[in-house]
Write a structure and sequence with these properties.
The chain is α/β, with parallel strands linked by helices. About 15% of the residues lie in helices and about 30% in strands. It contains 9 helices and 24 strands. Strands 12-11-13-14-24-20-19-16-17 form a 9-stranded mixed β-sheet. Strands 3, 6, 9 and 10 form a 4-stranded mixed β-sheet that branches. Strand 19 and strand 20 form a beta hairpin. The relative contact order is 0.15. The protein binds zinc ion. The site of zinc ion has 5 residues, from loops. Zinc ion (ZN) binds next to loops.
Length: about 400
């Protein structure tokens, strides 16, 4: 590393004073940070889904030069501009940890110039994992995955949850509101193991019963049109759940939400702020009797919150939960071929801002040398997102909700 810096400084002497000097912090330990000058340029572009038109905000775009990571995120229009040293680079493009959606693009950056990458500046975020969903009578997230974004997902049945080897073919499973009416204990156990082994789960509204079990679900599954909380005589009390693998201390809900649009809910997560372009959003509930979160454990982060009446509206666990303690790895990244690896990159000059990134294995050693480690920064095991709102409400859906559902799919 010392030699690299020396060479860089030597080059600067040779080249003389640069026309547009820019500073960056060399990839070294804090106490001997070296500041050098290099020839910088810009690369710009736009990231879209497989369908070619739907733009994707909050996607990570970065270049990795011997462990130096130059990273940005796409804006609300799916566009980015990244300042990097001149030269030929591999541009990494991925959402979340890079294990579901991942692309690369070869770029050439020239000093002091702005290069437009991709086909006319547009690059697709590719699906690199197998997704599955279980249908529900009140929700339809596969419509966004398949019809809107142009990705693919296979349908599973509730009975398929009895087959762990089948489940292991998929890196993420989406659970729609409106099923099931009953679950066997082995199904909950298999879902827990699935998560512990690095699979990711998304569940909406009443699909919380896949996670927490619900002693009331059998008697209430016939209707989802309760407009008034007072009529919810069978509401769960956070004490008597049947089945499930999350305890009431981790997550407990009651079917007491009203049909409403919550205006000005707080967007807690910064990525989602970038998606909606602000700190607040409107959340539309098309049916009454939705599952209000009453207990939420420290295993979960709140993504969206109603500060008036309902509290957390969307939550996430990144695998820090105790049930993931048996996981062997944070994920191999990309397609599991061994050519790509997911690491927790700890910027040497900014150790409080770790980034989960998926990179070529050829670039791994430089990161290990400065203290980065294999696996997600969020810990082992898959991630879990639960939204109290529907993902495909009948009738009108607010643009805000739509945009973040797209984010949840690509960042699960
Ligand atoms: Zn690193």
């Amino acid at each position: 590393m010392k030699r690299k810096v020396s060479i860089t400084i030597f080059r600067l002497f040779i080249l003389g004073i640069l026309s547009t000097p820019l500073l960056f912090v060399a990839c070294k330990k804090d106490k001997d940070v070296a500041v050098v000058t290099v020839n910088m340029g810009n690369v710009q572009g736009k990231i879209v889904a497989e369908n070619g038109t739907r733009h994707l905000p909050a996607v990570k775009v970065f270049v990795d030069i011997n462990g130096e990571v130059y990273l940005t995120h796409t804006d609300t229009k799916g566009e980015f501009k990244l300042n990097v040293p001149e030269g030929e680079h591999l541009l990494y493009i991925h959402a979340g940890d890079g294990n579901l959606f991942f692309s690369t693009e070869e770029i050439t950056v020239k000093k002091g110039e702005t290069t437009t990458a991709g086909d006319g500046g547009v690059m697709k975020l590719r699906q690199v994992a197998n997704l599955a969903y279980i249908s529900g009578s009140f929700d339809n997230i596969q419509s966004i995955i398949i019809d809107t974004l142009g990705y693919s997902a296979d349908e599973l049945t509730v009975q398929d949850l009895l087959d762990p080897s089948l489940l292991s073919n998929f890196q993420a499973i989406f659970l729609n509101c409106g099923a099931p009416e009953s679950m066997e204990g082995a199904m909950y156990q298999n879902l827990e193991n699935y998560l512990s082994n690095g699979g990711s789960l998304y569940a909406s509204d009443w699909a919380v019963s896949y996670l927490t079990g619900d002693g009331n679900i059998k008697s209430m599954a016939h209707k989802h049109d309760h407009e008034h909380p007072d009529h919810m005589s069978h509401a769960k009390n956070c004490t008597s759940s049947l089945g499930g693998f999350l305890t009431d201390d981790m997550l407990c809900t009651q079917k007491q939400g009203s049909q409403t649009t919550i205006s000005g809910a707080s967007v807690v997560h910064q990525d989602i702020q970038n998606v909606v372009g602000g700190m607040t959003m409107n959340v539309y509930y098309n049916l009454g009797g939705w599952d209000v979160i009453r207990n939420l454990g420290p295993e979960f982060d709140v993504l969206i919150q109603d500060n008036q009446n309902y509290g957390p509206l969307a939550v996430r666990s990144n695998g820090l939960a105790p049930w993931a303690s048996g996981a062997t790895s944070g994920g191999s990244g990309y397609d599991g071929s061994g050519n790509w690896v997911t690491i927790c990159h700890i910027p040497p000059g900014n150790p409080n801002n770790p980034q989960t990134i998926t990179i070529s294995v050829n670039a791994l050693q430089a990161h290990l040398d400065h203290g980065c480690y294999v696996g997600s920064c969020g810990g082992s095991g898959g991630s879990l997102i639960y939204t109290t709102f529907h993902n495909y409400p009948q009738g009108t859906v607010s643009q805000d909700t739509y945009d973040i559902l797209q984010y949840f799919i690509t960042n699960l």
